[in-house]
Amino acid sequence: MSKEMKRFELTLIDNEQVGVDYFIFNFEMPKNLIFKEGQYGAFKHVDKEIEGRKVRAFTFASTNNEDVLKIATVINDSPSDFKAKMLDLKKGDTMTVDGPLGGFTLDEDKNAIFFAAGIGITAARGMVKYLEEFDNGKENILIHAEHREFYCFKEDFKDFNNVLVKYENTGANMKDTAANMARKYKNDSVYYVSGNPGFVTAVTTIIQGQGVDPKQIKFEKFTGY
Ligand SMILES: Cc1cc2nc3c(=O)[nH]c(=O)nc-3n(C[C@H](O)[C@H](O)[C@H](O)COP(=O)(O)OP(=O)(O)OC[C@H]3O[C@@H](n4cnc5c(N)ncnc54)[C@H](O)[C@@H]3O)c2cc1C
Question: I need a surface site. Which of 61, 105, 145, 173 has the fewest CB within 10 A?
Answer without folding.
Answer: 173
